[in-house]
Amino acid sequence: PYIQDEWSISSDWRVTAGVRGYVVDSELEETTRKEISPGSVSDEHLVGAVGLSYLGVEDTLIWGAWSEGY
């Protein structure tokens, strides 16, 4: 699932933010590594993103963004 929204904080500035949820299920049937045991693993993780856009220059968009990955 993913949710994103954008807000105009003035006539020239916009903020964009979003959140994505990951669910990963995996199963290890066999291994030759002694430190790892076969079995099932489930992991859930939320990651976020935020961006800032400036539209105050004609025919130009200046933006910056930060986001996480998983």
Structure description:
By secondary structure, the protein is an all-beta fold. Helix content is 0%, strand content 71%. The protein has no helices and four strands. The chain has strands at residues 2-8, 13-28, 39-57, 60-67. Strands 1-2-3-4 form a four-stranded antiparallel β-sheet, with no helix packed on it. The protein is rod-shaped. The two termini are 14 Å apart. 0% of the residues are buried.
Give the structure's gist in a few sentences.
The chain has about 70 residues and is mainly β. It contains no helices and 4 strands.
Mean pLDDT: 94
Counting helices, strands and paired strands, the structural category is mainly beta
Query: In order across it, which strands form the biggest sheet?
Result: 1-2-3-4
Termini gap: 14 Å
Q: What best-fitting shape do the alpha-carbon axes yield?
A: rod-shaped
Write the H/E string, N to C: EEEE
Considering DSSP H and I runs of 4 or more, what fraction of the residues is helical?
under 10%
**Number of separate strands:** 4
**Rg on CA atoms, Å:** 20 Å
Low-confidence stretches: none
Strand portion: over 45%
Total helices: the number is 0
Largest sheet: 4 strands, antiparallel
